[in-house]
């Protein structure tokens, strides 16, 4: 159920998708050029990970946050990548008790019986699924920032763990929510180009996750997007996930 996630996804998901994002949503004259991401100077080096990982995971235990959420401050450069990543995650979950608890459970390699039962309750909770759907569907910010990017990636991790639990009674509902999130045109007026790239990157993560658990349903989304603004994006996502799967097959050691 537990997957460790590559921190580089914070800044690379939008870059991978940028070529078709320009075709998809265009760049309006009144949209300012994106400012450099403040955390880019401190981009952590790639950490060892499992072959199936895609997203961000915490590296230190995180307690549930206080009720009062302090003002957001970009983290300072840390002495090592693990401390920097843990600092980013702490700030991302601050003020969101549910997200903090998810990070708390995901950080543990082995959960005891009580902890596993508590986490599975969250993974099958319709209210939690509705919260994640709303957060991923309509993020309030109009410009990209590290804190909110991290929050969205952690919520995609939640969906990942929820589907990894094969006996999840909410599995069908989770797959349906992922389909809706991929197909939803949430590139609203007024979004900065950097934020458009970030949302396209989120759709890439979600499409990949759906493809892992239901390939037919993922590929069917391409036909459902025909004639919409998302058609070219979905075509790209299909080709991208198939190309990555082929590269993995080509790199596999023959028996």
Write structural notes for this entry.
This protein is mainly alpha-helical and 255 residues long. The chain has one domain (9-30, 50-251). It has helices spanning 9-25, 81-93, 97-106, 113-123, 126-137, 146-164, 171-183, 193-213, 215-224, 231-251. Helix 1 (9-25) packs across helix 10 (231-251), helix 5 runs antiparallel to helix 6 and helix 6 packs parallel to helix 8. The protein is globular. The model is unreliable at 1-72 (pLDDT under 50).
Using brief descriptors, characterize the structure shown.
255 residues; mainly alpha; 10 helices; 58% helix; 0% strand; globular; disordered N terminus
Count of domain modules: 1
Helix/strand/pairing class, anyone? mainly alpha
- Unreliable sequence segments: 1-72
Mean pLDDT: 77
The percent range for strand residues is under 5%
Number of strands: 0
- Percent of residues in helical segments? 55-70%
The main sheet comes to:
none
Shape: globular
Region (Disordered): 31-53
Q: Helix and strand layout, with pairings?
A:
Layout: H1 9-25, H2 81-93, H3 97-106, H4 113-123, H5 126-137, H6 146-164, H7 171-183, H8 193-213, H9 215-224, H10 231-251
Helix pairs in contact: 1-8, 1-10, 2-6, 5-6, 5-7, 6-8, 7-8, 8-9, 8-10, 9-10
Region (Disordered): 31-53
